[in-house]
Amino acid sequence: MDNKLNNYAFIDGNNLNLGVKSLGWKLDYLKFRRYLKEKYHIEVAYIFLGYIASFQPLYSSLQKYGYVLVFKPTIPDDNGDIKGNIDANLVLQAMIDFPKYNNGLIVTSDGDFYCLIDHLLENQKLEKVISPYRDKCSSLLRKSAKGKIVFMENLKQKLEYKRKSSA
């Protein structure tokens, strides 16, 4: 099988959402799914999220667009902010599926994933790291990705959500 086919994406959902928001635009998740398929041959695209019941319409849309959603229960932190720390779930899924994909693509700016990225690199299975935050991207992540990192600010034209105008 061609080494460029059958790639999997492992997406840190909250990091992606907050990172793109910090760039001043809103991500079109359908365009992003198509982009991953066309540019990186992503067959399976996991999004790891903390589950919030009121977001069910968004979850349904993401599934319709072809994402596989992996939820973790959420809890409020000391400030009352909702936390659904998904790091371990993302790493575990990448390792469970390791024999099934040719290359893995990681979407995050979080340095906690450096060990996964190192492992994928060592095994020649890292396609790319897509970082939503250039300025806040972990230096550990930048170092571990060894030049295989792409920053999202250059993707606004392709991936920005544009509300349909009613005529």
Q: In words, what does this structure look like?
A:
- This protein has one domain: Rossmann fold, CATH 3.40.50.1010.
- The chain contains 7 helices and 8 strands; from the N terminus they run βααβαβββαβαβαβα.
- The protein has helices at 13-22, 29-40, 56-64, 87-96, 114-122, 139-145, 156-159; strands at residues 7-12, 42-50, 67-72, 75-76, 82-83, 104-107, 126-131, 149-151.
- α5 packs parallel to α6 (139-145).
- It starts with 6 loop residues before the first strand and ends in an 8-residue tail after the last helix.
- The mean pLDDT is 89.
Quick rundown:
With 167 residues, this protein is α/β, with parallel strands linked by helices.
